[in-house]
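Supplementary Methods. Inverse-folding protocol.

Structures were first reduced to a discrete structure-token string of length 163. This string, shown here, constituted the complete conditioning input.
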């Protein structure tokens, strides 16, 4: 841990971190989130879908679109040339939820953690939007970075950190 917030200058003003002196490296980030429904609403979505369309396909596409626009949504994020962005939505029958996973790649001077987290969050919000007509109690839960690699700060793996 670096011990200071890098998005503020010495006078406490917000700044986009200067990464011009950093080496380009291969970067990867994987994030995950969960959208939980009531058992009845989950069953209905699984059997009949949403009147707005295929909840899985549309939310995956929304997540990809959101991940690509991260620097427009988060003020101090660098715009990055993404080399890969995949979003997967998987039903989890045991918890009446959908699990959303995003994997983002680039070769550059800064990581893609925010792009992965944004992709997951936008996909989760899309699932919420598509399901809210049949369930007002939907929750978005456990949005988190699972893994990141590349760069000066090294690698992170949530599972390895927990053990």
């Amino acid at each position: 841990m670096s011990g200071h917030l890098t998005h503020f200058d010495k006078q406490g003003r917000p700044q986009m971190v200067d990464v011009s002196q950093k080496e380009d490296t291969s970067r990867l980030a994987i994030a995950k989130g969960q959208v939980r429904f009531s058992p009845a609403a989950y069953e209905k979505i699984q059997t009949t879908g949403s009147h707005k369309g295929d909840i899985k396909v549309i939310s995956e596409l929304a997540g990809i679109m959101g991940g690509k626009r991260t620097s427009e949504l988060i003020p101090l994020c660098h715009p990055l040339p993404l080399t890969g962005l995949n979003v997967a939505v998987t039903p989890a029958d045991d918890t009446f939820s959908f699990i959303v996973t995003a994997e983002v790649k680039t070769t550059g001077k800064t990581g893609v953690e925010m792009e992965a987290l944004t992709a997951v969050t936008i996909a989760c919000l899309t699932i919420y939007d598509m399901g809210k007509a049949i369930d007002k109690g939907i929750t978005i839960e456990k949005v988190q970075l699972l893994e990141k690699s590349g760069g000066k700060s090294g690698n992170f793996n949530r599972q390895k950190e927990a053990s």
